[in-house]
Amino acid sequence: MIVAVDGPGGTGKTSVSRALARLLGLPHLDTGAFYRAATVAVLAAGADPAEPVGSLRAVTGSRIQSVAGAILLDGRDVTEEIRSEAVERNVSAVSAHPEVRALLVSAQRDWVDEHGGSAVVEGRDIGSMVFPDAEVKVYLTARPEVRARRRALESGVDDSETAEALTRRDHLDSTRAASPLIVPPGAVVIDTSDMSIDQVIETVAGLVTTRS
Question: For residue 81, which phi and psi values (nearest 5 degrees)?
Fold first, then answer.
């Protein structure tokens, strides 16, 4: 079974996906971490994140792995580095390149195959592109001010700055030509604004039970 969890930042996607995977006894894959690791590779190579040829060269020449919850780039643990401000600022540009996306989508599918073919997979194009035939698809959303507050608490940055960053990322991800951020066909939309993490997990787990 594939449980596809999509949505923008600040909706509780990662917390819900990780807890749901533990509850269901399934592997968990954060596909966004692949794009962040790819961005680390691009920046380390001195390439322009907005330039497709250099970005693809840097990503093609790198090995990105998700091992026991850690993200490795050419064997080096970059789990903390992928959350840096520089990566946050450039990940949308790297993610927008169709050739980079094709490479990483293939790697993500391979990861799930290597882990038995069942997983809780989170990202921004899981139900629409990576696993369009997923048995369960959910799209998490929340009011903008709620998302900004959650992200500000995580990062320690002012709410207004966080809101601007989220708005910019949403625009870039929803308007890119390759695999834009959309509500996948057949997905159940869940507004997490006034829900606890446990409530969201219970709701998604109920969908899994119903459709399994």
Answer: -60, -35
Concatenated DSSP letters for 67-132?
A: ETTEEEETTEE-TTGGGSHHHHHHHHHHHT-HHHHHHHHHHHHHHHHHTTS-EEEEESSIIIII-T
Residue with tokens 């989220």: 166
Least confident of 13-17, 94-98, 146-150, 169-173: 169-173
CA 35 to chain centroid, in Å, comes to: 8
Burial class (CB in 10 A: 0-12, 13-18, 19+), 4: buried
What CA–CA distance (Å, rounded) separates 15 from 76? Answer: 24
Q: What pLDDT sits at residue 53?
A: 97
pLDDT of 173 higher than 80:
yes
173, 13 Cβ separation under 8 angstroms? no
Q: Which residue has the tokens 């606890």?
A: 196
Q: Is 180 exposed, middle or buried (0-12, 13-18, 19+ CB in 10 A)?
A: middle
Does residue 31 carry a pLDDT above 70? yes
pLDDT at 161 exceeding the cut of 90: no
Q: Are 8 and 147 in contact (CB under 8 A)?
A: yes
DSSP 3-state assignment of 21? Answer: helix
The whole-angstrom separation of Cα 149 and Cα 17 is 20
User: In whole angstroms, what is the distance from residue 165 CA to residue 157 CA?
Assistant: 11
